[in-house]
Structures are given as C-alpha cells and as structure tokens.
Amino acid sequence: MNIKVVQKICYGVYIVSSKKDGRLNGQIANTVFQVTSEPPTIAVSINKQNLTHEFIRSEQVFTVSIVSQDASMTLIGHFGFKSGREIEKFKDIKYKTGVDRRAYCA
Prior knowledge:
This protein is 20% helix and 27% strand. The longest helix has 9 residues, at 51-59. It has 3 helices and 5 strands, in the order αββββαβα. The radius of gyration is 13 Å and the shape is globular. The protein is an alpha+beta fold. A hairpin with a 2-residue loop joins strand 1 (14-20) and strand 2. The model has no long low-confidence stretch (mean pLDDT 87). The relative contact order is 0.22. The strands form 2 sheets. The protein has a 3-stranded antiparallel β-sheet. A two-stranded antiparallel ribbon has the order 3-4.
C-alpha cells in the first residue's frame, strides 16, 4: 500500500474490486477513508447486497482504484449501474493485480 496515496484520500469516486474463485468484480464507491496510518489501514463502505461485498466477505481482500476526474461516464456506468451478477465487469478492461493482503470485513 502506498502510504503517501493513502494520506491523500479524500471524497471522490473509486472502483472497489475483489476476486473470488478466479472471478473479478468491482463497483463504484464514494466512501473510502484512512482509518490509521500505522499500520496503514483504510475503510470502504459497500452495500451488503452487492456482489462485490460477497467477494470481499468471502476472500477478505479488496482493492481500491481512484477514478480520474476525466474518466468517461461509460466507465463509471459500467461499474456503477450494472451488476456483476449479470455481466463480467472486467471483460475488455485493462487491469493488473497487486499484492494480496487480507482485509477485515465488518
């Protein structure tokens, strides 16, 4: 986790993603914030009925991508207005995975 980035998190638009059984899913979120600086800890707010929540709950891992102010509404709509239960959200999306760290899910 890049601590300098964590310290600059503010209100914005994010894609929160997780992986379960080899399948990726993500959703738009606007609530991501720093909880502690040592150890570096962030919190996200996810609707418990969303597939992303199911993935996070099961695998205890997630990622947060900051959406650029210049991002297209097509990208935001893809992750925000469509369900991962109906479409494969990362099909045709360029992405890379990072280091797997466990998450605490309340």
